[in-house]
Amino acid sequence: MSVVASVCMGHAPGMMGWPERAPKEQRERLFGAIAEAGQRVMAVEPDVLVLATSEHFANFFDIRPPFYLNIGEQSEGPAEKWLGVERRAVPGNASLAERMLESSLEKGFDIAYGHDLLLDHGSIIPLELMAIHRETPVIPIIVNGLCAPMPTFTRCGEWGESLGELLQAAPERVALVGCGGLSHWPGMAEQGKISPVWDRAVLDGLTAGDRSVLTEPPETGWDEAGPGAHELRAWTITGFATPPARAEVLAYEEAVAWGGGLAVVDLLPQQ
């Protein structure tokens, strides 16, 4: 059918690991927006969800591919017991994943792939908080937004656009989710530092229909946005796989207690 929904959001571990540390009103706004995003996704009855995110030393140690596509019949997670979620199998869609891989290779994208993947909070948080139905197949994409050297934002956009061409022509109804960011300094002395100026520049670009903020991140506030801002690459893949549209920001919070600027964005709001 086509791409029928597309959402981007953050995956701060504290949202599930220590939610009580954030003010009640902030929790309600953010969790309410994430729930709304999930309802929008499930309302269009997707056959499969393609999830672009980063991972945090759950699978890749000595070898860290720029891009990894899980083509297996399932993945499993979460890796972290402290998320408070029982580990489970997450169904995949090997047929579509293999078509995504073959198309990518034919177009010159050298993508790492495999049949197994341990999902950490970067994947489980959006699936759980958006209340994605557990029988919905999920195809995980891992982009290296953690350790240098990383793929360029431009290359992420090019691959996303290539995937979008395939998914738009696919017989399946496909929902997209990009997860990571925005500004944060994970596990560092600056933990809790946020760059609202940079975060809002990204969000303003998306609401104006300007996807270039995903391949050329705004310079204003970038130095304060922290290494966690590199996770924007997951949004870049998702954004360029999505048909062009003016995005709708469902929430943005300076969530100091959870260590970052957190947003929920519908990239393909229904008209």
3D architecture notes:
The chain has 271 residues and is of the alpha/beta class. The protein has a single domain, classed as Protocatechuate 4,5-dioxygenase, Chain B. Helix content is 34%, strand content 21%. It has nine helices and ten strands. An eight-stranded mixed β-sheet has the order 6-3-7-2-8-1-10-9, sandwiched between helices. It has a two-stranded antiparallel ribbon with strand order 4-5. Helix 3 crosses helix 5 and helix 5 runs parallel beside helix 9. The chain is globular, with a radius of gyration of 17 Å. The two termini are 18 Å apart. The mean pLDDT is 96.
In summary, what is this structure?
The chain is of the alpha/beta class and 271 residues long. The protein has a single domain (2-266), classed as LigB-like (Protocatechuate 4,5-dioxygenase, Chain B, 3-Layer(aba) Sandwich).
Order of helices and strands: EHHEEEEHEHEHEHHHHEE
Number of helices: 9
The class by helix and strand makeup works out as alpha/beta
CATH-scheme architecture: 3-Layer(aba) Sandwich
CATH superfamily: LigB-like
Task: Chart the SSEs and their pairings.
Blueprint: E1 2-9, H1 14-17, H2 24-43, E2 48-53, E3 67-70, E4 74-77, E5 88-91, H3 94-106, E6 112-114, H4 121-129, E7 138-143, H5 153-169, E8 173-179, H6 196-207, H7 212-215, H8 222-225, H9 232-241, E9 248-255, E10 260-266
Helix pairs in contact: 3-5, 5-9
